[in-house]
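User: Sequence recovery, please. Input:
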């Protein structure tokens, strides 16, 4: 991260991190079609949770909620702009990324892979189309934790306008296209060999 001291000199700040264990709640409920028997969806987060592996939390008929896993959420001082974008959204949320389960537990086809509060990273996973990516609303204690971290470590980066050089680039033509084309008027024409065929 670039930082300017009081004298305006550029210095490199050490990367500061903070980590919180976060429990992931996954809900299993009956599917709505005969082709999808069960729907599995991340629905909640438990800040500061202990270790767990598919511990049942609540059951209502066929709908079951599990504390499926506890993952470490690490935040970085270099990413505070992304965290601000997350907090400024209508519902501040974490991205939960799940990959295909090689060995399904309780029949769940997904394995929790990571959680991130970085909006840009989450969108990247979402656009990749791999696995399951869900937004889960952030609990109030996590919002406060993230806000405090941003206030302590965010540094506004000064916008530096790039100066253009004075060199004129419209005076010299470095080439007219394919050297096999003799006509200068149609540089995008396909070149022909001596027999008249297009190469």
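Assistant: Recovered sequence (199 residues):
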């Amino acid at each position: 991260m670039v930082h300017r001291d009081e004298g305006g000199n550029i210095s490199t700040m050490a990367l500061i991190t903070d980590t919180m264990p976060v429990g992931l709640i996954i809900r299993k409920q009956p599917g709505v079609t005969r082709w999808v028997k069960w729907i599995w969806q991340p629905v909640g987060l438990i800040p500061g949770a202990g270790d767990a592996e598919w511990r049942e939390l609540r059951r209502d008929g066929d709908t079951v909620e599990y504390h499926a896993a506890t993952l470490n959420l690490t935040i970085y001082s270099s990413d505070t702009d992304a965290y601000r974008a997350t907090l400024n959204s209508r519902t501040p949320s974490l991205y939960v990324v799940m990959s295909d389960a090689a060995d399904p537990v309780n029949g769940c086809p997904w394995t929790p892979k990571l959680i991130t509060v970085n909006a840009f990273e989450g969108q990247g996973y979402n656009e990749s189309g791999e696995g399951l990516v869900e937004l889960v609303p952030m609990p109030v204690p996590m919002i406060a934790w993230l806000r405090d971290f941003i206030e302590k470590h965010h540094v506004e980066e000064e916008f530096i306008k790039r100066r253009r050089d004075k060199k004129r680039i419209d005076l010299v033509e470095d080439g007219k296209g394919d050297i096999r084309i003799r006509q200068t008027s149609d540089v995008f024409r396909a070149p022909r060999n001596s027999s008249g065929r297009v190469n």
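The two ends are 52 Å apart (CA to CA).
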